[in-house]
C-alpha cells in the first residue's frame, strides 16, 4: 500500500509542479508587484488601445470560427448519420484530412492562391468576372478565418457525429407524429439533445482559435492576443504585460470550460430510454449529394493542395498554376543543415514525449480504475488539466518560471519542449487507458493471480492485450500532433540547433528566394506523417476517435 501511495504522490507532484506551478507563477506576476497585490498591471494592459483591440479581435475571431465550423460540421454530421450512400466510409475518413496540416503550415501555400496577384485573382481576371485584382486577404484577418475554419470543422463534425451515435431517434418520430415540422423538431428536440457534443466542440474550437499563434504570424497579422503574448517573450523579465495577457487567455479558457460543464450538468439531455437505432435513408438525388460533398472536400483540401504545389513549383507568378516544376526543394529538406536539424529534433522530441505519455498515461489510467485510494479524484483532475491550458500559456509560463535556472530554455530548451509536448497530449493516453480498463473485468486479473501468476505475467497476458489497441491509437495520435506542435515550439526553441520542424518552417517562410518553397516541402513531409498516424488511429479506434476532441 505504501508503494501505491508513493507512486500516486510522485505522479501528482510531477503534474502539480510542471502544470499548476507555471500557472501559479503567471498569476503571481500578474497580480503582485514587490510583494503586494495590485491591479496596476491589468490597468496598464487594458488601458493600451492596441492590446485592447487585439483582445477584441481574438474574441471576434473565435466567435466567427465557431459559427463557420458549425455551418459546415453540423449538417455534415447529419448527412453521414442519417443517410446511406456508397463510399460513405471512405468519405468520412477523407473529411478528417483537413486536420493533418495545421493552418500555420498550409497558410504559406494558401497565400499564393488568395493574395492580390494569386491564382484566384488571375482566374477571375481571365474569366472576365473582375477587372481589377481583389485583396481577399486584406489585413490577413480573413485568411486566418478561412484557414482555421477549414482546419477545425472536422472537430465539430466528429463531436456531433458522436452525439448522434447515442441519439434516440424515437424522440424525433414522436415529434413528427404530433405534427411538428422538420425545423421545429430540430429546434425543440434534436439540437437540445446534442448540445453536449456541440458545446464541447465549440469550446475546443474557440480556445484553439484565440490561442493559435502560427497562423497570424504567417499572415503577419499582429492584432491578436496570441501574437501580443509572443512579442512580449523578449521582455518577460522587465515588462509584466505579457503575464497579464496570458492570464486573460487562461481565464477565458477556464471560464468557458466551467460554463460549458455547469450548463450541461444542470440540464437533462437524456430521454429516459436506451438510444434507438435508426435505419439510414437512401438519397434519391445522389448527384446533388456527391457534387456537394466533393465540392466541400475540394475546398477543404485547397490549403493542402496549394502546399503541395508550392513545394514543387520552380516558377509560380501571375499564373493559375505553377509554370515550372522541380523537386529540388525536397532534396534541400533532406540535405540542408537547418531542415535536417528540424526533422531530427522533432522526431526525437516527439518520440520521447510519446513514450512518457504512454508510461504516465497507463499508470494514471490504471490508478483511476483499479486502485482504491483516497484523493485519486485529484489525479483525475490533474491529468485532464492540459485540456484547459493552451500551449502558448504553458510555454510562456515555462519561460517565465525557468529563466536563469538550470532549465533555462534560452540555454537548453530540450527538457521543457519534450515536457510541454508530453503534458499537452497526456489526456489522450489517459482516456484510452481508462476506457479500455473499464472493459476489462477485474475477475480476470484476480483469476490470474490465483493461478500463481505474478504482476508482470498478469500484465503481459491479461492487461496489455486489452489496453494496447487504445494506448497505441492514442500514442500515435500524440506523436503526430507533437511532431507539428506550433506554439510551444515557436516560444521555447530559441537557438537554431534546438529548432523543431515548426520553428524551421516559420524561419524559412520569412526568407526570400527558395525559403517558402522549402518550408512547404518540409510541411508536406510533416503532413504525410500526420496523415499516416491519423489513419492508423482511426482504423484502430474507429468512431471513438472523436473522444480525443472532447472536453468534459
β-strand number: 6
Taken in chain order, the helices and strands follow as HEEHHEHHHHHHHHHHEHEEHHHHHHHHHH
Strand content: under 5%
For the record, the count of structural domains works out to 2
CATH architecture of the largest domain: Orthogonal Bundle
Structure explained in plain terms:
The protein is an all-alpha fold and 552 residues long. It folds into 2 domains: 253 residues, MetI-like fold (Orthogonal Bundle), CATH 1.10.3720.10; 288 residues, MetI-like fold (Orthogonal Bundle), CATH 1.10.3720.10. Helix content is 71%, strand content 2%. It has a two-stranded antiparallel sheet with strand order 1-2. The protein has a two-stranded parallel ribbon with strand order 3-4. β5 and β6 form a beta hairpin. 45% of the residues are buried.
In short:
This protein is mainly α and 552 residues long. The protein has helices at 2-31, 40-47, 49-82, 88-94, 103-114, 119-126, 141-165, 170-177, 182-193, 195-211, 214-218, 225-231, 241-266, 286-312, 328-333, 337-370, 376-384, 391-402, 414-438, 442-450, 455-483, 487-492, 501-509, 515-541; strands at 32-33, 36-37, 83-84, 281-282, 313-315, 324-325.
Amino acid at each position: 500500500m505504501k508503494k501505491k501511495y508513493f507512486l500516486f504522490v510522485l505522479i501528482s507532484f510531477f503534474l502539480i509542479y510542471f502544470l499548476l506551478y507555471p500557472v501559479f507563477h503567471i498569476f503571481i506576476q500578474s497580480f503582485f508587484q514587490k510583494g503586494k497585490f495590485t491591479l496596476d498591471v491589468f490597468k496598464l494592459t487594458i488601458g493600451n488601445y492596441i492590446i485592447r483591440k487585439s483582445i477584441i479581435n481574438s474574441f471576434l475571431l473565435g466567435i466567427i470560427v465557431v459559427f463557420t465550423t458549425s455551418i459546415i460540421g453540423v449538417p455534415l454530421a447529419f448527412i453521414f448519420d442519417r443517410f446511406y450512400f456508397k463510399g460513405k466510409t471512405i468519405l468520412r475518413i477523407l473529411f478528417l484530412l483537413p486536420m493533418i496540416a495545421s493552418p500555420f503550415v498550409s497558410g504559406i501555400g494558401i497565400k499564393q492562391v488568395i493574395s492580390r496577384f494569386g491564382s484566384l485573382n488571375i482566374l477571375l481576371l481571365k474569366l472576365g468576372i473582375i477587372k481589377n485584382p481583389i485583396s481577399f486577404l486584406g489585413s490577413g484577418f480573413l485568411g486566418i478565418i478561412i484557414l482555421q475554419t477549414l482546419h477545425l470543422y472536422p472537430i465539430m463534425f466528429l463531436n456531433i457525429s458522436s452525439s448522434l451515435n447515442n441519439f434516440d431517434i424515437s424522440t424525433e418520430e414522436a415529434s413528427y407524429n404530433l405534427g411538428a415540422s422538420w425545423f421545429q423538431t430540430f429546434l425543440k428536440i434534436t439540437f437540445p439533445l446534442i448540445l453536449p457534443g456541440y458545446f464541447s466542440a465549440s469550446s475546443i474550437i474557440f480556445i484553439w482559435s484565440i490561442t493559435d499563434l502560427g497562423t497570424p504570424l504567417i499572415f503577419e497579422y499582429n492584432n491578436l492576443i496570441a501574437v501580443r503574448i509572443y512579442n512580449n517573450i523578449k521582455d518577460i523579465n522587465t515588462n509584466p504585460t505579457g503575464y497579464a495577457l496570458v492570464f486573460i487567455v487562461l481565464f477565458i479558457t477556464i471560464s468557458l470550460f466551467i460554463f460549458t460543464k455547469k450548463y450541461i450538468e444542470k440540464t437533462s439531455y437524456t430521454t429516459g430510454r436506451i438510444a434507438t437505432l435508426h435505419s439510414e435513408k437512401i438519397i434519391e438525388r445522389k448527384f446533388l449529394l456527391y457534387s456537394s460533398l466533393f465540392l466541400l472536400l475540394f475546398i477543404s483540401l485547397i490549403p493542402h493542395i496549394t502546399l503541395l504545389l508550392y513545394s514543387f513549383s520552380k516558377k509560380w507568378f501571375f499564373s493559375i498554376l505553377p509554370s515550372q516544376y522541380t523537386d529540388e526543394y525536397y532534396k534541400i529538406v533532406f540535405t540542408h543543415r537547418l531542415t535536417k536539424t528540424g526533422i531530427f529534433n522533432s522526431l526525437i522530441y516527439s518520440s520521447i514525449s510519446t513514450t512518457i505519455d504512454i508510461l504516465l498515461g497507463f499508470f494514471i489510467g490504471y490508478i483511476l480504475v483499479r486502485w482504491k485510494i483516497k484523493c485519486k479524484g485529484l489525479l483525475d483532475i490533474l491529468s485532464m488539466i492540459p485540456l484547459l491550458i493552451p500551449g502558448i500559456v504553458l510555454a510562456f509560463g515555462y519561460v517565465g518560471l525557468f529563466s536563469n535556472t538550470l532549465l533555462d530554455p534560452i540555454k537548453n530548451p530540450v527538457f521543457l519542449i519534450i515536457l510541454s509536448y508530453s503534458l499537452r497530449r497526456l489526456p489522450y493516453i489517459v482516456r484510452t487507458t481508462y476506457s479500455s480498463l473499464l472493459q476489462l473485468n477485474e475477475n480476470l486479473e484476480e483469476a490470474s493471480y490465483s493461478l500463481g501468476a505474478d504482476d508482470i505475467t498478469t500484465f503481459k497476458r491479461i492487461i496489455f492485450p486489452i489496453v494496447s489497441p487504445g494506448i497505441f491509437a492514442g500514442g500515435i495520435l500524440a506523436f503526430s500532433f507533437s511532431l507539428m506542435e506550433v506554439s510551444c515550439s515557436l516560444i521555447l526553441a530559441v537557438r537554431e540547433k534546438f529548432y523543431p520542424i515548426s520553428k524551421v518552417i516559420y524561419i524559412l517562410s520569412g526568407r526570400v528566394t527558395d525559403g517558402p518553397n522549402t518550408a512547404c516541402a518540409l510541411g508536406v513531409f510533416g503532413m504525410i506523417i500526420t496523415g499516416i498516424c491519423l489513419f492508423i488511429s482511426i482504423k484502430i479506434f474507429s468512431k471513438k476517435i472523436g473522444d480525443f476532441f472532447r472536453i468534459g
